[in-house]
Automatic annotation (TrEMBL):
Pfam families (UniProt xref): Hexapep, LpxD
Name of the featured protein: UDP-3-O-acylglucosamine N-acyltransferase
Keyword Plastid among record annotations: no
Catalytic class of the enzyme: transferase
GO molecular function terms attached to this record: N-acyltransferase activity; UDP-3-O-[(3R)-3-hydroxyacyl]-glucosamine N-acyltransferase activity
Record domain UDP-3-O-[3-hydroxymyristoyl] glucosamine N-acyltransferase non-repeat region: where: 22-89
Alphabetized NCBIfam families for the sequence: lipid_A_lpxD, PRK00892.1
Residues the record marks as active site: H241 (proton acceptor)
Reaction(s) this enzyme catalyzes, per UniProt: a UDP-3-O-[(3R)-3-hydroxyacyl]-alpha-D-glucosamine + a (3R)-hydroxyacyl-[ACP] = a UDP-2-N,3-O-bis[(3R)-3-hydroxyacyl]-alpha-D-glucosamine + holo-[ACP] + H(+)
Domain of life: Bacteria
Pathway the protein contributes to: Bacterial outer membrane biogenesis; LPS lipid A biosynthesis
Length: 341
């Protein structure tokens, strides 16, 4: 798919400085630009590359001043970085604008779906499923019985949505995600054998949620595991049964959250964080990567370490910890002097 400089300028409300008819069909970094590619300049340290880039079109701030001749056509905009991001979003929309039902697929006779949907080959849609408008379900995805999917939802290839799950508008489920698998519920009997506790609840994902590849969200034992609106989950996160994650919280990769824990809104949780079950984490909490959370956390706390301390206490303690060998040498020297007196 090709776009001219004039077309791109129209999308970005920019002004062309150069050849309006030059065409591009790919994106590139400014230092790696080649003929037929589009790039941008936002960071001043990359300015020298604009005089050597072979990209056909470069997006720049409207007040950018050239000091040497260039071969690339410029599109001048209010903010080059924001404009390029907007263009990436537009490019993705065009690239992913698939519609229709490929063959083979299985769609239950009791399932219903809205307008302008896409079902990729080998997708499975179970009994009593409800799918809204503008939904895209990519190949090899599984949609279990009684699932409800809102409008403008994307379910990428290979995702598995178990029965009874609810997915809100504008959410994105990436490849390999499993939503609604059984929670880790077992109870020992008198022989010491572990007997499975039936997991009869579901998962509710509200609007505008992004779930990264390979993430798993378990169904509740009773009631619902709830991911509230605006939550962004990275790849390979484990969320256990009956967890609740508040609005606009973001969680980085490889974090694990044990059962029945409640996390507030607007939290930021780093990668490889471990959170025990049955605790409450307040709003606006920040947890540094690789921390272990084993207690309730109040609003606005910032934590680090395992077990986690307040961020300030952790940094003070770490200064002493990294100097521990020197401190012990001084202590041993002092002890020897005392013993010799």
């Amino acid at each position: 798919m090709k776009f001219t400089a004039a077309q791109i300028a129209g999308i970005l409300e920019g002004v062309v400085d150069g050849n309006e008819e030059v065409e591009v069909s790919k994106l590139a970094k400014i230092e790696e630009g080649s003929e037929g590619s589009l790039t941008f300049l936002a960071n001043p340290k990359y300015t020298p590359y604009i005089y050597t880039t072979k990209a056909s079109i470069t997006i720049v701030d409207k007040d950018f001043v050239l000091e040497h001749p260039i071969t690339t056509t410029l599109i001048r905009v209010e903010n080059a970085y924001k404009s390029f991001s907007k263009l990436l979003e537009y490019y993705n929309q065009v690239k992913m604008n698939k519609t229709g039902i490929e063959k083979p697929v299985f769609v239950s006779e009791s399932a219903t779906y809205g307008e302008n949907i896409y079902l990729g080959a080998f997708a499975y849609v179970g009994d009593n499923v409800t799918i809204g408008d503008n939904v895209k379900v990519y190949p090899n995805a599984y949609i279990g019985d009684n699932v409800k999917i809102g409008n403008n939802v994307t379910v990428f290839a290979g995702a598995k949505i178990y029965s009874e799950t609810v997915i809100g508008d504008n959410s994105v489920i990436h490849s390999g995600v499993v939503v609604g698998a059984d929670g880790f519920g077992f109870s020992p009997n008198e022989k010491g054998e572990y007997i499975k506790v039936p997991q009869t609840g579901n998962v509710i994902i509200e609007a505008n949620v992004d779930i990264g590849a390979g993430t798993t969200i378990d169904r509740a034992t009773l009631g619902s595991t709830v991911i509230k609106k605006g939550v962004k989950l990275d790849n390979q996160i484990q969320i256990a049964h009956n967890v609740e994650i508040g609005e606009n919280t973001v969680i980085a990769a490889q974090t694990g959250i044990a059962g029945s824990t409640k996390i507030g809104k607007n939290c930021m949780i780093g990668g490889q964080v471990g959170i025990v079950g049955h605790i409450t984490i307040g709003d606006n909490v920040k947890i540094q990567a690789q921390s272990g959370i084993g207690r309730n956390v109040k609003d606005n706390e910032t934590l680090q370490g395992s077990p986690a301390l307040s961020y300030g206490d952790f940094n003070k303690s770490y200064v002493h910890f990294k100097n521990l060998p020197k401190i012990m040498d001084r202590f041993n020297t002092f002890e020897k002097k005392l013993n010799n007196e």
